[in-house]
Amino acid sequence: MTPSRRMRILYVNHTGNVSGAERVLVDVLKGLDRNRYEPVLLCPSEGRLGAEIRALDVAWKPLPTVGARFSLRPDRLLRAVASMGKAVVALRRQIGELKPDLVHANTIRSGILATVATLGRGTPVVWHVHDILPKHPLSAAIRLFARSSSRTHIVAVSHATAQAFCGGLDFQGRARTIHNGVDLERFPLKASGASAFRDKFGIPQSAFLVCAVGQICERKGLRELIDAFERICKGVPQMHLAIVGAVVFKHEESYYNTLREMAADSRCSERIHFTGELSNVSEVLQGSDLLVLNSSQEPFGLVLVEAMSSGTPVIATRVGGIPEIVTDQVNGWLVEKGDSIGLASKLLNLSFDREMLSQVTQVAHQTTCPQFSLQRFHNNLGRLYGEFDSEHASSYNSAAKLAFSEHVRP
Protein backbone atom coordinates (compact mmCIF):
# COMPACT_ATOMS: atom_id res chain seq x y z
CA MET A 1 0.00 0.00 0.00
CA THR A 2 1.32 3.46 -0.87
CA PRO A 3 0.97 6.38 1.55
CA SER A 4 -1.07 8.28 -1.06
CA ARG A 5 -4.21 6.19 -0.66
CA ARG A 6 -6.39 4.64 2.00
CA MET A 7 -5.91 1.07 3.12
CA ARG A 8 -8.32 -1.01 1.04
CA ILE A 9 -10.04 -3.79 2.98
CA LEU A 10 -12.06 -6.42 1.16
CA TYR A 11 -14.78 -7.90 3.40
CA VAL A 12 -16.05 -11.33 2.40
CA ASN A 13 -19.21 -13.01 3.72
CA HIS A 14 -20.24 -16.40 2.35
CA THR A 15 -23.98 -15.72 2.77
CA GLY A 16 -26.30 -12.80 2.10
CA ASN A 17 -28.60 -13.76 4.97
CA VAL A 18 -28.35 -11.75 8.17
CA SER A 19 -27.79 -13.40 11.53
CA GLY A 20 -25.37 -12.68 14.40
CA ALA A 21 -22.13 -12.62 12.38
CA GLU A 22 -23.62 -10.28 9.82
CA ARG A 23 -24.89 -7.92 12.51
CA VAL A 24 -21.31 -7.66 13.77
CA LEU A 25 -20.07 -7.02 10.22
CA VAL A 26 -22.54 -4.15 9.83
CA ASP A 27 -21.27 -2.68 13.12
CA VAL A 28 -17.67 -3.03 11.86
CA LEU A 29 -18.47 -1.07 8.72
CA LYS A 30 -20.49 1.58 10.54
CA GLY A 31 -17.53 2.37 12.79
CA LEU A 32 -14.81 2.22 10.14
CA ASP A 33 -12.71 5.38 9.69
CA ARG A 34 -13.32 6.17 6.01
CA ASN A 35 -10.43 8.66 5.98
CA ARG A 36 -8.07 5.79 6.66
CA TYR A 37 -9.82 2.71 5.22
CA GLU A 38 -11.64 1.97 1.97
CA PRO A 39 -14.08 -0.94 2.46
CA VAL A 40 -15.55 -3.20 -0.24
CA LEU A 41 -17.93 -6.08 0.54
CA LEU A 42 -18.40 -9.31 -1.40
CA CYS A 43 -21.39 -11.51 -0.54
CA PRO A 44 -24.17 -13.37 -2.40
CA SER A 45 -27.08 -11.31 -3.67
CA GLU A 46 -29.64 -13.53 -1.91
CA GLY A 47 -30.72 -12.10 1.45
CA ARG A 48 -30.70 -8.53 2.70
CA LEU A 49 -27.03 -8.10 3.69
CA GLY A 50 -26.02 -6.48 0.40
CA ALA A 51 -28.78 -3.90 0.68
CA GLU A 52 -27.87 -3.07 4.28
CA ILE A 53 -24.25 -2.57 3.29
CA ARG A 54 -25.09 -0.37 0.29
CA ALA A 55 -27.20 1.78 2.63
CA LEU A 56 -23.95 2.50 4.52
CA ASP A 57 -22.41 3.77 1.28
CA VAL A 58 -20.03 0.82 1.13
CA ALA A 59 -19.18 -0.68 -2.26
CA TRP A 60 -20.77 -4.11 -2.76
CA LYS A 61 -20.05 -6.79 -5.33
CA PRO A 62 -21.87 -10.13 -5.71
CA LEU A 63 -20.33 -13.47 -4.82
CA PRO A 64 -21.73 -16.88 -5.86
CA THR A 65 -23.76 -18.56 -3.14
CA VAL A 66 -21.76 -20.95 -0.99
CA GLY A 67 -23.79 -23.97 0.10
CA ALA A 68 -21.11 -25.86 2.01
CA ARG A 69 -22.12 -27.50 5.30
CA PHE A 70 -20.37 -30.02 7.55
CA SER A 71 -20.90 -33.43 5.97
CA LEU A 72 -18.80 -36.42 4.96
CA ARG A 73 -21.46 -37.82 2.62
CA PRO A 74 -19.79 -38.02 -0.82
CA ASP A 75 -22.68 -36.33 -2.68
CA ARG A 76 -22.89 -33.41 -0.25
CA LEU A 77 -19.12 -33.09 -0.10
CA LEU A 78 -18.90 -32.90 -3.91
CA ARG A 79 -21.63 -30.25 -4.01
CA ALA A 80 -19.82 -28.28 -1.31
CA VAL A 81 -16.49 -28.44 -3.17
CA ALA A 82 -18.16 -27.36 -6.41
CA SER A 83 -19.97 -24.50 -4.67
CA MET A 84 -16.81 -23.25 -2.98
CA GLY A 85 -14.74 -23.69 -6.15
CA LYS A 86 -17.09 -21.42 -8.08
CA ALA A 87 -16.92 -18.83 -5.31
CA VAL A 88 -13.10 -19.02 -5.18
CA VAL A 89 -12.82 -18.30 -8.91
CA ALA A 90 -15.10 -15.25 -8.60
CA LEU A 91 -13.32 -14.03 -5.48
CA ARG A 92 -9.87 -14.41 -7.00
CA ARG A 93 -10.99 -12.38 -10.01
CA GLN A 94 -12.26 -9.58 -7.74
CA ILE A 95 -9.07 -9.63 -5.70
CA GLY A 96 -7.06 -9.26 -8.89
CA GLU A 97 -9.12 -6.21 -9.88
CA LEU A 98 -9.40 -4.56 -6.46
CA LYS A 99 -5.90 -5.39 -5.15
CA PRO A 100 -6.89 -5.14 -1.47
CA ASP A 101 -4.29 -4.58 1.24
CA LEU A 102 -6.20 -6.91 3.58
CA VAL A 103 -9.05 -9.42 3.28
CA HIS A 104 -11.38 -9.59 6.27
CA ALA A 105 -13.30 -12.88 5.96
CA ASN A 106 -16.33 -12.67 8.23
CA THR A 107 -16.99 -16.41 8.61
CA ILE A 108 -14.99 -19.64 8.61
CA ARG A 109 -16.28 -20.54 5.13
CA SER A 110 -15.30 -17.08 3.93
CA GLY A 111 -11.86 -17.58 5.45
CA ILE A 112 -11.33 -20.78 3.48
CA LEU A 113 -12.42 -19.06 0.27
CA ALA A 114 -10.22 -16.01 0.87
CA THR A 115 -7.07 -17.95 1.78
CA VAL A 116 -7.37 -20.12 -1.34
CA ALA A 117 -8.25 -17.16 -3.57
CA THR A 118 -5.19 -15.19 -2.43
CA LEU A 119 -2.65 -17.97 -2.99
CA GLY A 120 0.48 -16.54 -4.57
CA ARG A 121 -0.50 -12.94 -3.88
CA GLY A 122 0.85 -12.46 -0.36
CA THR A 123 -2.34 -10.73 0.80
CA PRO A 124 -2.99 -11.14 4.54
CA VAL A 125 -6.35 -12.69 5.44
CA VAL A 126 -8.21 -12.25 8.73
CA TRP A 127 -10.63 -15.05 9.59
CA HIS A 128 -13.28 -13.53 11.88
CA VAL A 129 -14.53 -16.62 13.72
CA HIS A 130 -18.09 -16.26 15.05
CA ASP A 131 -18.84 -19.95 15.52
CA ILE A 132 -17.67 -22.70 17.85
CA LEU A 133 -15.89 -25.13 15.54
CA PRO A 134 -17.63 -28.49 16.16
CA LYS A 135 -15.89 -31.78 16.84
CA HIS A 136 -15.83 -33.16 13.32
CA PRO A 137 -13.19 -34.61 10.97
CA LEU A 138 -13.60 -31.59 8.69
CA SER A 139 -12.88 -29.26 11.62
CA ALA A 140 -9.41 -30.74 12.01
CA ALA A 141 -8.76 -30.19 8.30
CA ILE A 142 -9.98 -26.58 8.51
CA ARG A 143 -7.80 -25.92 11.56
CA LEU A 144 -4.71 -27.36 9.88
CA PHE A 145 -5.39 -25.41 6.69
CA ALA A 146 -5.67 -22.13 8.61
CA ARG A 147 -2.51 -22.89 10.58
CA SER A 148 -0.52 -23.80 7.46
CA SER A 149 -0.72 -20.32 5.93
CA SER A 150 1.42 -17.63 7.53
CA ARG A 151 -0.90 -15.06 5.91
CA THR A 152 -3.90 -16.27 7.92
CA HIS A 153 -4.78 -14.51 11.16
CA ILE A 154 -7.60 -15.65 13.46
CA VAL A 155 -9.87 -13.22 15.32
CA ALA A 156 -12.43 -14.95 17.53
CA VAL A 157 -15.43 -13.37 19.24
CA SER A 158 -14.68 -15.05 22.58
CA HIS A 159 -11.88 -16.97 24.26
CA ALA A 160 -14.02 -20.11 24.09
CA THR A 161 -14.43 -19.68 20.34
CA ALA A 162 -10.69 -19.10 19.90
CA GLN A 163 -9.77 -22.18 21.92
CA ALA A 164 -12.25 -24.36 20.03
CA PHE A 165 -10.88 -23.16 16.70
CA CYS A 166 -7.18 -23.46 17.54
CA GLY A 167 -7.50 -26.79 19.33
CA GLY A 168 -4.03 -27.91 20.39
CA LEU A 169 -2.27 -26.07 17.56
CA ASP A 170 0.09 -23.16 18.17
CA PHE A 171 -0.83 -20.35 15.79
CA GLN A 172 2.34 -18.49 16.79
CA GLY A 173 0.65 -15.25 17.79
CA ARG A 174 -1.70 -15.25 14.80
CA ALA A 175 -4.84 -15.89 16.88
CA ARG A 176 -6.55 -13.54 19.29
CA THR A 177 -9.88 -12.70 20.83
CA ILE A 178 -11.74 -9.47 20.20
CA HIS A 179 -15.03 -9.58 22.07
CA ASN A 180 -18.02 -8.23 20.20
CA GLY A 181 -19.35 -4.83 21.21
CA VAL A 182 -22.78 -3.26 21.62
CA ASP A 183 -23.82 0.29 20.80
CA LEU A 184 -25.02 0.98 24.33
CA GLU A 185 -26.78 4.19 23.31
CA ARG A 186 -29.20 2.11 21.22
CA PHE A 187 -30.22 0.22 24.37
CA PRO A 188 -31.01 2.85 27.03
CA LEU A 189 -32.25 1.98 30.50
CA LYS A 190 -35.94 1.26 30.67
CA ALA A 191 -38.16 3.97 32.09
CA SER A 192 -41.42 3.66 34.00
CA GLY A 193 -44.64 3.67 32.04
CA ALA A 194 -46.56 1.43 29.67
CA SER A 195 -44.69 -0.79 27.24
CA ALA A 196 -45.60 -0.33 23.57
CA PHE A 197 -44.26 -3.82 22.88
CA ARG A 198 -46.67 -5.36 25.37
CA ASP A 199 -49.59 -3.41 23.95
CA LYS A 200 -48.77 -4.51 20.41
CA PHE A 201 -48.87 -8.22 21.28
CA GLY A 202 -51.63 -8.18 23.90
CA ILE A 203 -49.39 -8.85 26.87
CA PRO A 204 -50.74 -7.32 30.11
CA GLN A 205 -48.66 -4.48 31.54
CA SER A 206 -48.81 -6.20 34.94
CA ALA A 207 -47.47 -9.56 33.65
CA PHE A 208 -44.02 -10.89 34.48
CA LEU A 209 -42.64 -11.09 30.96
CA VAL A 210 -39.84 -13.49 30.01
CA CYS A 211 -38.38 -13.04 26.54
CA ALA A 212 -36.03 -14.93 24.22
CA VAL A 213 -34.58 -12.81 21.42
CA GLY A 214 -32.62 -13.99 18.41
CA GLN A 215 -32.45 -16.34 15.46
CA ILE A 216 -34.83 -19.28 15.76
CA CYS A 217 -32.77 -22.44 15.48
CA GLU A 218 -32.27 -25.63 17.46
CA ARG A 219 -29.10 -24.55 19.26
CA LYS A 220 -30.99 -21.69 20.96
CA GLY A 221 -32.76 -24.21 23.23
CA LEU A 222 -36.26 -22.81 22.67
CA ARG A 223 -37.94 -26.20 22.95
CA GLU A 224 -36.47 -26.59 26.44
CA LEU A 225 -37.48 -23.03 27.32
CA ILE A 226 -41.10 -23.70 26.39
CA ASP A 227 -40.95 -26.92 28.39
CA ALA A 228 -39.61 -25.03 31.43
CA PHE A 229 -42.34 -22.41 31.09
CA GLU A 230 -45.07 -25.04 30.89
CA ARG A 231 -43.77 -26.75 34.04
CA ILE A 232 -44.42 -23.65 36.15
CA CYS A 233 -47.01 -21.61 34.25
CA LYS A 234 -49.97 -22.74 36.37
CA GLY A 235 -48.11 -21.72 39.53
CA VAL A 236 -47.26 -18.26 38.16
CA PRO A 237 -50.37 -17.13 36.28
CA GLN A 238 -48.86 -13.65 35.85
CA MET A 239 -45.94 -14.98 33.74
CA HIS A 240 -45.87 -14.67 29.92
CA LEU A 241 -43.23 -15.85 27.43
CA ALA A 242 -42.32 -13.92 24.26
CA ILE A 243 -40.19 -15.60 21.58
CA VAL A 244 -38.83 -12.85 19.37
CA GLY A 245 -37.06 -13.81 16.16
CA ALA A 246 -37.35 -15.65 12.87
CA VAL A 247 -35.86 -18.57 10.99
CA VAL A 248 -32.81 -17.49 8.99
CA PHE A 249 -31.89 -20.76 7.31
CA LYS A 250 -34.43 -23.06 5.64
CA HIS A 251 -33.23 -26.23 7.34
CA GLU A 252 -34.50 -24.78 10.67
CA GLU A 253 -38.10 -24.33 9.49
CA SER A 254 -39.20 -27.76 10.73
CA TYR A 255 -37.80 -26.89 14.17
CA TYR A 256 -39.83 -23.67 14.19
CA ASN A 257 -42.98 -25.59 13.24
CA THR A 258 -42.33 -27.99 16.12
CA LEU A 259 -42.07 -25.04 18.52
CA ARG A 260 -45.39 -23.62 17.32
CA GLU A 261 -47.10 -27.01 17.74
CA MET A 262 -45.57 -27.45 21.18
CA ALA A 263 -46.80 -24.03 22.27
CA ALA A 264 -50.27 -24.64 20.85
CA ASP A 265 -50.56 -27.89 22.82
CA SER A 266 -49.37 -26.25 26.03
CA ARG A 267 -51.71 -25.74 28.97
CA CYS A 268 -50.71 -22.07 28.83
CA SER A 269 -50.73 -21.53 25.08
CA GLU A 270 -52.43 -18.13 25.42
CA ARG A 271 -49.39 -16.86 27.32
CA ILE A 272 -46.74 -17.91 24.76
CA HIS A 273 -46.23 -15.25 22.10
CA PHE A 274 -44.34 -15.68 18.82
CA THR A 275 -43.69 -12.18 17.52
CA GLY A 276 -41.50 -12.85 14.50
CA GLU A 277 -38.44 -10.74 13.83
CA LEU A 278 -38.72 -7.17 15.14
CA SER A 279 -36.55 -4.22 14.14
CA ASN A 280 -36.79 -2.49 17.53
CA VAL A 281 -35.14 -4.99 19.88
CA SER A 282 -34.60 -2.23 22.44
CA GLU A 283 -38.36 -1.88 22.83
CA VAL A 284 -38.65 -5.63 23.47
CA LEU A 285 -35.94 -5.63 26.12
CA GLN A 286 -37.29 -2.53 27.84
CA GLY A 287 -40.71 -4.15 28.00
CA SER A 288 -39.45 -7.43 29.48
CA ASP A 289 -38.69 -8.45 33.05
CA LEU A 290 -36.17 -11.17 32.20
CA LEU A 291 -34.21 -12.32 29.15
CA VAL A 292 -33.39 -16.01 28.71
CA LEU A 293 -30.64 -17.24 26.37
CA ASN A 294 -30.98 -21.01 26.68
CA SER A 295 -28.46 -22.05 24.03
CA SER A 296 -26.83 -25.45 23.80
CA GLN A 297 -23.86 -23.62 22.26
CA GLU A 298 -23.19 -19.89 21.99
CA PRO A 299 -19.99 -18.29 20.68
CA PHE A 300 -20.66 -14.94 22.38
CA GLY A 301 -24.22 -13.69 23.07
CA LEU A 302 -24.68 -10.05 21.99
CA VAL A 303 -28.26 -9.97 23.24
CA LEU A 304 -27.03 -10.48 26.82
CA VAL A 305 -25.16 -7.18 26.76
CA GLU A 306 -28.09 -5.48 25.01
CA ALA A 307 -30.40 -6.66 27.80
CA MET A 308 -27.97 -5.55 30.52
CA SER A 309 -27.73 -2.13 28.91
CA SER A 310 -31.55 -1.94 28.89
CA GLY A 311 -31.79 -2.80 32.57
CA THR A 312 -33.20 -6.27 31.93
CA PRO A 313 -31.72 -9.14 33.99
CA VAL A 314 -30.52 -12.26 32.18
CA ILE A 315 -30.47 -16.03 32.57
CA ALA A 316 -28.18 -17.94 30.23
CA THR A 317 -26.60 -21.34 29.83
CA ARG A 318 -23.06 -22.08 30.95
CA VAL A 319 -21.73 -22.71 27.43
CA GLY A 320 -19.29 -21.20 24.94
CA GLY A 321 -18.53 -17.52 25.42
CA ILE A 322 -21.46 -16.82 27.76
CA PRO A 323 -19.45 -17.18 31.02
CA GLU A 324 -17.12 -14.48 29.67
CA ILE A 325 -20.10 -12.10 29.97
CA VAL A 326 -22.27 -13.52 32.76
CA THR A 327 -21.03 -14.33 36.26
CA ASP A 328 -23.60 -16.42 38.11
CA GLN A 329 -25.53 -14.49 40.78
CA VAL A 330 -23.40 -11.38 40.20
CA ASN A 331 -24.60 -9.82 36.94
CA GLY A 332 -27.03 -12.54 35.91
CA TRP A 333 -27.67 -16.26 36.35
CA LEU A 334 -26.22 -19.32 34.68
CA VAL A 335 -27.96 -22.67 34.22
CA GLU A 336 -26.81 -25.91 32.63
CA LYS A 337 -27.72 -26.53 29.00
CA GLY A 338 -30.66 -28.82 28.38
CA ASP A 339 -31.82 -28.62 32.02
CA SER A 340 -35.49 -27.66 31.69
CA ILE A 341 -36.18 -28.46 35.34
CA GLY A 342 -33.32 -26.26 36.58
CA LEU A 343 -34.39 -23.44 34.28
CA ALA A 344 -37.99 -23.74 35.42
CA SER A 345 -36.94 -23.52 39.07
CA LYS A 346 -34.84 -20.43 38.36
CA LEU A 347 -37.67 -18.72 36.49
CA LEU A 348 -40.11 -19.50 39.29
CA ASN A 349 -37.86 -18.17 42.05
CA LEU A 350 -36.84 -14.99 40.23
CA SER A 351 -40.40 -14.11 39.27
CA PHE A 352 -41.08 -13.56 43.00
CA ASP A 353 -37.80 -11.83 43.86
CA ARG A 354 -37.83 -8.32 42.41
CA GLU A 355 -35.17 -7.13 44.83
CA MET A 356 -32.66 -9.71 43.64
CA LEU A 357 -33.45 -8.87 40.00
CA SER A 358 -32.83 -5.20 40.72
CA GLN A 359 -29.49 -5.80 42.46
CA VAL A 360 -28.10 -7.94 39.66
CA THR A 361 -29.37 -5.54 37.01
CA GLN A 362 -27.50 -2.64 38.59
CA VAL A 363 -24.19 -4.52 38.64
CA ALA A 364 -24.65 -5.64 35.03
CA HIS A 365 -25.40 -2.15 33.76
CA GLN A 366 -22.69 -0.32 35.64
CA THR A 367 -19.87 -2.86 35.52
CA THR A 368 -20.37 -5.31 32.65
CA CYS A 369 -21.72 -3.14 29.85
CA PRO A 370 -18.68 -0.84 29.58
CA GLN A 371 -16.48 -3.90 29.04
CA PHE A 372 -18.43 -4.76 25.89
CA SER A 373 -19.04 -1.35 24.35
CA LEU A 374 -18.95 -0.85 20.60
CA GLN A 375 -16.25 1.80 21.06
CA ARG A 376 -13.95 -0.71 22.72
CA PHE A 377 -14.64 -3.19 19.93
CA HIS A 378 -13.75 -0.62 17.26
CA ASN A 379 -10.58 0.38 19.12
CA ASN A 380 -9.38 -3.22 19.32
CA LEU A 381 -10.23 -3.85 15.67
CA GLY A 382 -8.34 -0.67 14.76
CA ARG A 383 -5.28 -2.03 16.55
CA LEU A 384 -5.54 -5.20 14.49
CA TYR A 385 -5.85 -3.33 11.19
CA GLY A 386 -2.93 -1.12 12.19
CA GLU A 387 -0.67 -4.15 12.23
CA PHE A 388 -1.30 -4.61 8.49
CA ASP A 389 -1.16 -0.92 7.61
CA SER A 390 2.39 -0.22 6.45
CA GLU A 391 1.84 3.53 6.68
CA HIS A 392 1.03 3.32 10.38
CA ALA A 393 2.69 0.04 11.36
CA SER A 394 5.38 1.73 13.47
CA SER A 395 2.71 2.84 15.94
CA TYR A 396 1.85 -0.81 16.60
CA ASN A 397 5.18 -2.13 17.83
CA SER A 398 5.72 -5.39 19.68
CA ALA A 399 5.19 -3.74 23.05
CA ALA A 400 1.76 -2.56 21.97
CA LYS A 401 0.90 -6.04 20.76
CA LEU A 402 1.87 -7.54 24.12
CA ALA A 403 -0.30 -4.92 25.82
CA PHE A 404 -3.32 -5.89 23.71
CA SER A 405 -5.57 -7.19 26.46
CA GLU A 406 -7.70 -9.52 24.37
CA HIS A 407 -5.15 -11.97 22.97
CA VAL A 408 -6.15 -15.63 23.26
CA ARG A 409 -5.78 -16.99 26.76
CA PRO A 410 -3.25 -19.79 27.18
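That was protein one. Protein two is written in the same sequence-then-structure order:
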Amino acid sequence: MDKRDFRRLRRTVHGKGSLRDVALFEVMAGAGLRVTEALRLRVSDLTIGARSGSVVVRKGKGNVYREVPLTKEVRQALREYLAAHDLDGDDPLWVGQRGALTDRSVVNRMLAKYARLAGVDGVTPHVLRHSFATAYLRRNPGDIRHLAAILGHADLKTTMVYTEPDLDELARRMEEAEI
Protein backbone atom coordinates (compact mmCIF):
# COMPACT_ATOMS: atom_id res chain seq x y z
CA MET A 1 0.00 0.00 0.00
CA ASP A 2 1.46 3.37 -0.90
CA LYS A 3 1.93 6.12 1.71
CA ARG A 4 -1.01 8.19 0.53
CA ASP A 5 -3.46 5.28 0.69
CA PHE A 6 -2.09 4.24 4.07
CA ARG A 7 -2.54 7.74 5.49
CA ARG A 8 -6.06 7.93 4.09
CA LEU A 9 -6.90 4.53 5.62
CA ARG A 10 -5.39 5.50 8.99
CA ARG A 11 -7.37 8.78 9.05
CA THR A 12 -10.56 6.86 8.29
CA VAL A 13 -9.96 4.27 11.01
CA HIS A 14 -9.13 6.98 13.55
CA GLY A 15 -12.08 9.14 12.50
CA LYS A 16 -14.79 6.51 12.22
CA GLY A 17 -13.52 3.54 14.23
CA SER A 18 -14.07 2.43 17.80
CA LEU A 19 -11.17 2.61 20.23
CA ARG A 20 -10.72 -1.15 19.77
CA ASP A 21 -10.61 -0.90 15.99
CA VAL A 22 -8.10 1.97 16.15
CA ALA A 23 -5.85 0.11 18.61
CA LEU A 24 -6.02 -3.16 16.66
CA PHE A 25 -5.26 -1.36 13.41
CA GLU A 26 -2.29 0.41 15.00
CA VAL A 27 -0.91 -2.82 16.47
CA MET A 28 -1.02 -4.57 13.10
CA ALA A 29 0.10 -1.60 11.00
CA GLY A 30 2.58 -0.11 13.47
CA ALA A 31 4.19 -3.26 14.88
CA GLY A 32 3.87 -5.66 11.95
CA LEU A 33 2.02 -8.36 13.86
CA ARG A 34 0.22 -11.14 12.04
CA VAL A 35 -3.54 -11.08 12.60
CA THR A 36 -3.44 -14.33 14.61
CA GLU A 37 -0.64 -12.95 16.78
CA ALA A 38 -2.61 -9.79 17.46
CA LEU A 39 -5.76 -11.76 18.30
CA ARG A 40 -3.90 -13.98 20.79
CA LEU A 41 -2.62 -11.04 22.82
CA ARG A 42 -3.42 -10.73 26.51
CA VAL A 43 -3.31 -7.52 28.51
CA SER A 44 -0.26 -8.87 30.36
CA ASP A 45 1.62 -9.08 27.03
CA LEU A 46 1.79 -5.27 26.93
CA THR A 47 4.30 -2.98 28.54
CA ILE A 48 3.38 0.64 27.94
CA GLY A 49 5.45 3.46 29.38
CA ALA A 50 5.49 7.17 28.70
CA ARG A 51 8.39 6.95 26.25
CA SER A 52 8.62 3.29 25.36
CA GLY A 53 6.66 0.12 25.23
CA SER A 54 6.59 -3.37 23.84
CA VAL A 55 4.35 -6.30 23.16
CA VAL A 56 5.23 -9.93 23.77
CA VAL A 57 4.24 -12.36 21.06
CA ARG A 58 4.23 -15.63 22.98
CA LYS A 59 3.28 -17.92 20.13
CA GLY A 60 4.11 -16.50 16.76
CA LYS A 61 4.29 -18.61 13.63
CA GLY A 62 6.22 -21.77 14.51
CA ASN A 63 5.59 -21.06 18.22
CA VAL A 64 8.37 -18.44 18.15
CA TYR A 65 8.48 -16.04 21.13
CA ARG A 66 9.52 -12.44 20.50
CA GLU A 67 9.18 -8.94 21.88
CA VAL A 68 8.26 -6.11 19.55
CA PRO A 69 8.81 -2.44 20.44
CA LEU A 70 5.78 -0.18 20.13
CA THR A 71 5.80 3.23 18.49
CA LYS A 72 4.29 6.31 20.08
CA GLU A 73 1.15 6.01 17.89
CA VAL A 74 0.60 2.37 18.85
CA ARG A 75 1.14 3.07 22.56
CA GLN A 76 -1.31 5.99 22.48
CA ALA A 77 -4.02 3.94 20.74
CA LEU A 78 -3.55 1.10 23.24
CA ARG A 79 -3.65 3.49 26.22
CA GLU A 80 -6.94 5.00 25.04
CA TYR A 81 -8.44 1.57 24.37
CA LEU A 82 -7.37 0.17 27.76
CA ALA A 83 -8.62 3.26 29.61
CA ALA A 84 -12.10 2.61 28.22
CA HIS A 85 -12.21 -1.08 29.20
CA ASP A 86 -11.91 -2.86 32.51
CA LEU A 87 -9.23 -5.34 31.45
CA ASP A 88 -6.19 -6.60 33.28
CA GLY A 89 -3.73 -9.45 33.68
CA ASP A 90 -4.53 -12.53 31.66
CA ASP A 91 -7.68 -11.07 30.05
CA PRO A 92 -7.78 -11.22 26.25
CA LEU A 93 -6.72 -7.83 24.91
CA TRP A 94 -9.41 -7.51 22.26
CA VAL A 95 -13.03 -7.60 23.37
CA GLY A 96 -16.31 -6.83 21.67
CA GLN A 97 -19.98 -6.99 22.54
CA ARG A 98 -19.89 -10.79 22.51
CA GLY A 99 -16.66 -11.23 24.45
CA ALA A 100 -13.12 -11.90 23.30
CA LEU A 101 -12.32 -11.21 19.66
CA THR A 102 -10.72 -14.38 18.29
CA ASP A 103 -11.97 -14.74 14.72
CA ARG A 104 -9.67 -13.39 12.03
CA SER A 105 -12.63 -12.99 9.64
CA VAL A 106 -13.95 -10.25 11.95
CA VAL A 107 -10.66 -8.38 11.47
CA ASN A 108 -10.82 -8.91 7.70
CA ARG A 109 -14.36 -7.47 7.62
CA MET A 110 -13.33 -4.57 9.85
CA LEU A 111 -10.43 -3.64 7.55
CA ALA A 112 -12.61 -4.06 4.44
CA LYS A 113 -15.16 -1.65 5.93
CA TYR A 114 -12.59 1.07 6.64
CA ALA A 115 -10.87 0.51 3.30
CA ARG A 116 -14.19 0.97 1.50
CA LEU A 117 -14.89 4.16 3.48
CA ALA A 118 -11.38 5.44 2.69
CA GLY A 119 -11.61 4.50 -0.99
CA VAL A 120 -8.63 2.16 -0.76
CA ASP A 121 -8.60 -1.28 -2.40
CA GLY A 122 -7.08 -4.56 -1.30
CA VAL A 123 -6.53 -3.97 2.40
CA THR A 124 -5.96 -7.12 4.46
CA PRO A 125 -4.02 -7.80 7.67
CA HIS A 126 -1.20 -9.19 5.53
CA VAL A 127 -1.11 -6.01 3.43
CA LEU A 128 -0.71 -4.01 6.67
CA ARG A 129 2.19 -6.28 7.67
CA HIS A 130 3.80 -5.89 4.26
CA SER A 131 3.29 -2.11 4.40
CA PHE A 132 4.91 -2.02 7.84
CA ALA A 133 7.94 -3.95 6.54
CA THR A 134 8.27 -1.72 3.50
CA ALA A 135 8.00 1.47 5.57
CA TYR A 136 10.54 0.14 8.09
CA LEU A 137 13.07 -0.51 5.34
CA ARG A 138 12.38 2.85 3.74
CA ARG A 139 13.36 4.50 7.03
CA ASN A 140 16.14 1.99 7.79
CA PRO A 141 17.64 0.97 4.44
CA GLY A 142 19.33 -2.43 4.48
CA ASP A 143 18.30 -3.28 8.05
CA ILE A 144 16.90 -6.70 7.12
CA ARG A 145 18.23 -8.38 10.26
CA HIS A 146 16.33 -6.17 12.71
CA LEU A 147 13.21 -6.26 10.56
CA ALA A 148 13.37 -10.07 10.58
CA ALA A 149 13.49 -10.00 14.38
CA ILE A 150 10.49 -7.65 14.56
CA LEU A 151 8.48 -9.78 12.13
CA GLY A 152 9.46 -13.07 13.79
CA HIS A 153 11.33 -14.53 10.83
CA ALA A 154 14.10 -17.05 11.49
CA ASP A 155 15.25 -16.93 7.87
CA LEU A 156 16.23 -13.63 6.25
CA LYS A 157 14.98 -14.96 2.90
CA THR A 158 11.46 -14.86 4.31
CA THR A 159 11.89 -11.20 5.24
CA MET A 160 13.19 -10.36 1.79
CA VAL A 161 9.94 -11.66 0.25
CA TYR A 162 8.06 -8.97 2.23
CA THR A 163 10.35 -6.31 0.88
CA GLU A 164 10.18 -7.13 -2.81
CA PRO A 165 10.39 -3.78 -4.63
CA ASP A 166 7.61 -2.85 -7.00
CA LEU A 167 8.16 -1.72 -10.58
CA ASP A 168 7.89 1.99 -9.72
CA GLU A 169 10.54 1.65 -7.03
CA LEU A 170 12.88 -0.22 -9.38
CA ALA A 171 12.41 2.43 -12.07
CA ARG A 172 13.13 5.23 -9.58
CA ARG A 173 16.32 3.54 -8.42
CA MET A 174 17.48 2.90 -11.97
CA GLU A 175 16.97 6.58 -12.81
CA GLU A 176 19.05 7.53 -9.77
CA ALA A 177 21.79 5.07 -10.76
CA GLU A 178 22.04 6.30 -14.36
CA ILE A 179 25.58 7.36 -15.32
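The radius of gyration is 17 Å. Keep this in mind for the problem set.
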